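Handout, section 4.2: multi-component inputs.
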Amino acid sequence: DVKVTQSSRYLVKRTGEKVFLECVQDMDHENMFWYRQDPGLGLRLIYFSYDVKMKEKGDIPEGYSVSREKKERFSLILESASTNQTSMYLCASSLGVLGFGQYFGPGTRLTVT
Amino acid sequence: EDQVTQSPEALRLQEGESSSLNCSYTVSGLRGLFWYRQDPGKGPEFLFTLYSAGEEKEKERLKATLTKKESFLHITAPKPEDSATYLCAVQRVRITQGGSEKLVFGKGTKLTVNP
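Output:
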């Protein structure tokens, strides 16, 4: 079974703090993704990576950056957390570029106060 | 712009009462349509991929079908444990080299099955 793990289930941070969310997958998948999910807005893509050290912006990249130094690990960084970044953050991975289902981690509920 | 619309937003069924969820989409060249199940406070769980009109996939009480404009998720004799939000997503055909093509998600149908 594909396993995608995220570093924290719940996280509380203060405005202005730098926040790191980590994601690890154990299936040698090429592609990894970061989403946020908010009530009424659904899932929105922040960034994705289709290879080590490669990244592409998604729909809402502002205020976020990412790092992929190893194939199995994809990190999301909030450079200076703000209250409007309070959300559920979901990491996903997929085997191929096109036509492959994405497998999601359990999510990190981030609250910025 | 690619769009995915799911209906209804919420659906309440009695245990054993079969029904269908709808996913309508507009995309310039469909590469795949994906169905997910999401339980409260958890990440979506991948269910099916459909690639072309006429295709069907089944898993336990769930059956997904695809036409050129929509997909249906049929739930036969549902049980309370089928209660969840069901998400639909589409991926378009990539026309440039390299990279990937993002999924466009619908907002989901929240299914509640009462015992």
